[in-house]
Design brief:
Strand content: 25-35%
Helix content: 25-40%
Distance between the termini: 53 Å
Shape: globular
Number of domains: 2
Structural class: alpha+beta
Number of helices: 6
Strand order of the largest sheet: 1-4-3-2
């Protein structure tokens, strides 16, 4: 890298060199970067191609999962959620022991016993932390912290099919209200809890409301089962 001194004011490329401004100075350097043709075909870039394929697959799955979780994800107002989800989904994909590297999938990773740990550790509302836990075996919803002024919670149990959908993943909802305050709430046995949901991703999506029925902003909780 070299620094251009004098009266010349150049930016862009000239004679195989790149000129750009940095900290008020004109910097000259040879163009760098990857050779796209080599990455696509050269055998020594095989790992790069496999990693790119898997990251792309995780990003695509993450986009579909975010759409399946609307409008609750929008409530979180997290500009970096996409990147955080992509990393979490890639960790899940690495659990796939059924497929060779480059062809691993999130769906196969979800079959691994360790997937529950990764899903449970993920923080959805980083601005507000974790407020709730939901035990799908005991059908119990636990409130560790209740927002000030909240008099009720609206809970949506959303069962999301992890198999690829056309635009977003298919899901089924069960919605109920919980009076507050109260540290826990029991969900009674109901025919709506369909055994067909076995293998689905399970979410408890909780919104809090004040005495006038207005939703409390920034307090939405997302709990994975």
């Amino acid at each position: 890298m070299a620094e251009l001194k004098g009266i010349l004011k150049i930016s862009g490329k000239l004679g195989g060199l790149s000129f750009y401004k940095m900290n008020g100075k004109i910097i000259v350097r040879n163009p760098g970067g990857f050779d796209g043709e080599k990455i696509r075909k050269d055998e020594k870039y095989a790992n790069v191609r496999m990693n790119a394929s898997e990251f792309g697959r995780c990003s695509k799955f993450g986009g579909k999962l975010r759409r399946a979780l609307q409008p609750f994800v929008k409530d979180l107002n997290d500009p970096v959620l996409h990147g955080r989800m992509a990393k979490m989904l890639y960790d899940l994909m690495k659990l796939d022991k059924l497929s060779p590297k480059g062809e691993r999938t999130v769906q196969h990773g979800l079959l691994h016993a360790e997937s529950a740990t990764i899903l449970g550790a993920f923080s959805w509302n980083t601005a507000d932390g974790k407020r709730c836990r939901y035990d799908y075996d005991k059908r119990m919803l636990f409130f560790d912290r209740i927002p000030a002024r909240s008099t009720k919670a609206e809970v949506t149990l959303r069962f999301i099919n992890p198999e690829e959908g056309q635009d977003s993943l298919e899901f089924q909802d069960i919605v109920f209200e919980v009076p507050l305050p109260g540290p826990e709430f029991f969900i009674s046995e109901d025919s709506e809890f369909n055994p067909a949901y076995e293998g689905y991703l399970k979410f408890a999506l909780i919104r809090f409301f004040d005495g006038k029925g207005f939703q409390l902003p920034g307090k939405t909780a997302v709990v994975m089962g």
